Amino acid sequence: MRRSTLSGLFGFFALLLALTADLSAAYQEPPFKLETGWLPEHETFLIWYAKQKGWDKQEGLDIVLNRFDSGKDLIGNADKWVIGACGAFPILTSPYPEQFTIIGVGNDESLANAVMVRPDSPLLDTKGANKGYPNLYGKADDVRGKTIICPASSSAQYLLTKWLAAYGLTTEDVRIQNTDAVPGLQAFFGGEGDAIVLWAPYSYTGDEHGLKVAATSRSVNAPQSVLLMADKDFAAAHPSQVASFLRVYLRAVRMMREESVATLAEDYKTFFKEWAGKTMSDAEVIKDITIHQVFLLEDQLRMFNAEHSRSDMQDWLASIIRFHAGDAYSQDKTEELLGLVTGAFLEKVERPIPEYR
């Protein structure tokens, strides 16, 4: 009798636990829908891959990827996303940069931004003429008076100005044709212009047509980072969701750092074909993954650490501001823009970052 009673009690509690689990699942909150904005390039592969693996759901998010073809386009449609990624220049040149907060780094793309020329360009006849830029092709006389095709309000414009400065020139010494990347390439292939400034993957189209790299952001000491940013009001109202997003992204960063290019190649091709609308060759995949540097959580915490007067990220942004505005901005305005940078959300990321396997 006693055994029967105990057996009945165990059965009752087992049923109760099962019902409790069912009720808990039934009343579990749906994932938080997070609208995000991206360009068809390297950093977006990380969040696309994370989405394919369901890592966003594991953090209580439903990340929606919205595509834009340039940083200017992304910033101009800021009402369509609350977290996005692009270079610093489109943010700073937007009418209301103070509506954003910079929460992390997507990648370093200094080797992916390039000045490209035709293979018969006289620029390619000389290398290292300026001892301060040993990897720079050409001389000032090869550039002066030439027509340069360059998308406006983009990281390419920053590279253009730094490239000219390496020769002791300014934008007044050349003719600039402001055209977006795709129509710019079409115009260049049609015979217009003497050089074109591009970023990956558009530069790979240039490679396919035989164009040559005359300079990169790295060769003219103009480091370029893709920034992760959030709508400031959204981030203030939803700090845990911002931190969860970063945890998802940084999980993919860990994968990119630890996995071989060969392991990533097929997924990378699929991403570019299905999401970015570009067919990547094996050589392009290897190059694109290799030339983009990504940063682990501990790296980013150091970059955003403002223990002293400014963080490394704020110092870098200050150089972009000086380029953009010169002496036009007051010290107060500059400090206001530097205040867009915050490591607060990186600090909130739950550790350790999960395994990606």
From TrEMBL:
Keywords: Signal
Main location: periplasm
Subcellular location: Periplasm
Signal sequence region: 1-26
GO cellular component assignments: periplasmic space
Signal keyword on record: yes
Domain SsuA/THI5-like, chain residue ranges per copy: 141-258
Family listed: Belongs to the bacterial solute-binding protein SsuA/TauA family.
Protein name per the record: SsuA/THI5-like domain-containing protein
Species name: Bilophila wadsworthia (strain 3_1_6)
